[in-house]
Known about the structure:
Blueprint (H helix, E strand, L loop, with lengths): L1 H14 L9 H5 L6 H39 L2 E3 L4 H10 L9 E5 L4 E8 L2 E7 L5 E8 L8 H10 L4 E10 L2 E10 L2 E7 L7
Antiparallel strand pairs: 1-2, 2-3, 3-4, 4-5, 5-6, 6-7, 7-8
Amino acid sequence: MRESILLIRGAIQAIFSDIFLFIPKSFLNRPLSLHAENIKNIRNMKKEVMMKTKSLFMLLLAGVFTFGLQSCDDDDDKDIVATPELQAAFTAQFPNVDVNYVKWEWNGRENAYEADFYEDRYEKSAWFSQSYEWLMTETDYNPPYSEVPQVVQDAAQAAHPDYRLDDIDGIETPGDMYYRVEMEKGEHDIYLNISPDGTVR
């Protein structure tokens, strides 16, 4: 009978070897007996391991599902090689930028071509439609924001005196130009759109 119990314990360890860390060593190393309580403990331990195995499987499944969703999101932005027509449209809009140093993407969220590049030391992004029309340019300004009109900075600070300037981008479209100002206070961020004359939109 003792040999049978040893075989049972060995089988349990073999079946659950991949999750062996859940079984306390104090239980596995203690002397065996034919007492009914020990048999009950074995059954309870097996049930506990099965439950934890199921939990691990569900966590793994959730991780795979999340990764799949992230992969789908990543598909929205894809690196591309610009066609001659797209390069020509870019050069017409930015004649001083070497098109060979432009990073191109297809922006699925905006349904447009996106060009990332540098001009006059500033990091910029420009968007073009599928028919190669220029849609918008975003310029990332750096502190101390000397290129941004002081009236814009003053307007942002006056609107939210308890916040500090964190980032300023210039936004240009075919019919408009404004500054998008990000301000922060601790972990809280707010965004303002301000015209060059200091008008908060």
